[in-house]
Amino acid sequence: MNAEFAFLDSSADFFWVPPGYTTPLSYDSVAAIVHRNANSFRSVDNQFTSILIHPLSSDFCNYTATIRSVIADTSGKKSEFNLIETGLMVRRDDGWKLLSGQTGLIPAK
User: What is the pTM of this model?
Assistant: First the structure.
């Protein structure tokens, strides 16, 4: 889970609304949650099942995606989720970073 920090913008402009939250979280709040929970999982496999990217300028783009997430806890129990995500990406000196967005759980049919 800690590998995702390479793709998150750590500026004061960052915010994210994760599944189950109704208000945005700052970078520091997201970092604290990820660090606190990282050892609870044996693996997290997130794969885009669709993604649509819209360039806004040479330094910004937004995207909409669906994601299949398979999570295994430390006992090996697996859980699968389908997610929908929208986000704003910003180009920084060290590459594209997630600046803001939200992820929601797609209800099971």
Answer: 0.86
